[in-house]
Structure formats: C-alpha cells, structure tokens
Write a structure and sequence with these properties.
This protein is mainly α. The protein contains six helices and two strands, in the order H-H-E-E-H-H-H-H. A hairpin with a 5-residue loop joins strand 1 and strand 2 (about 40). The protein is elongated and about 70 Å long. The protein starts with a helix and ends with a helix. The model has no long low-confidence stretch (mean pLDDT about 90).
C-alpha cells in the first residue's frame, strides 16, 4: 500500500490531482487508514495510470467517468467500451495530424527567421511586410 504522496510520485501527479480524480469518481474507492489517510494499492496505481493516459489523450472527464462506469459493469459493456476506445483513437489521429501541421508550419517559420536574420534590413520590416515576405517564400 502507498500513501498519497507515494502514489503521486509513482504517477507523476500531484496529491491534489489524485483527490480530484477521486472526487470526480474516476477512481475506485480508495482505502483509508484508521487516521483517514488514503492508501493506494498497486491496482489503484494502474487505474490512475489508465485515467492519466486518457487525460493525456484529451478525453474529457465526463467521458472518462462514463467509460469507467461501463468498465465497472463488466463484460456486458465491452461493445460500448470498444466503441468509446475507437473514438479516442480516431480523435488522437486527428490531434496528431493537426500537431504535425502545426509543427511543419512552425519549423517553416523558424527557417524563415534564420534566413531573415542574415538580412541586414530585416530589423526595418513591419509585421505586414514580414508577413507578405513569409507568404511569398511559402508559395515558392
């Protein structure tokens, strides 16, 4: 069994986040000591890591709560959970595509600035002139 501080360290989360996850019913009932301190089991840690993974994937809290509710109902909800996981995967693919586009544009802008810094008159450009220059470089 692990204290809240130990569980936080193991998961990379804060104790406040662990309490929030519990309050939002994203975790199973966490055992308590006689002094009412939380005690996390290995299973709880794995559960927290699952929730953490879903949060990293930008799955909303309400969707995680719905998924967990279905999960706790057992095998009769496998098809619903499979559908939810497929939606998470589709959303992650969309996020990755958007991030790749953003990265490409940002790298292009960095390359543009590197070239611009070699030009003595670059400091005299207005933002509109710079924008026009950037657009014309991107179209060539």
């Amino acid at each position: 069994m692990y204290s809240a501080k130990e569980a936080a360290k193991m998961t990379g989360l804060t104790t406040a986040t662990l309490r929030y996850y519990e309050k939002e019913q994203l975790l199973p009932a966490i055992e308590r000591t006689e002094q009412k301190y939380r005690q996390y089991s290995d299973t709880d840690i794995e559960w927290i890591k699952m929730v953490q993974c879903l949060r990293i994937a930008n799955v909303p809290i309400r969707s995680i709560r719905e998924y967990i509710l279905l999960l706790t109902q057992g095998g009769k909800t496998i098809l619903q959970r499979r559908f939810m996981v497929q939606e998470y995967i589709d959303d992650l693919h969309n996020q990755m595509t958007n991030l790749q586009s953003a990265l490409a544009l940002t790298e292009k802008k960095l390359e543009f600035y590197d070239k611009l810094l070699q030009t003595p008159t670059a400091q005299d450009l207005t933002y509109l002139e710079e924008w026009d220059l950037f657009k014309s470089k991107g179209e060539s």
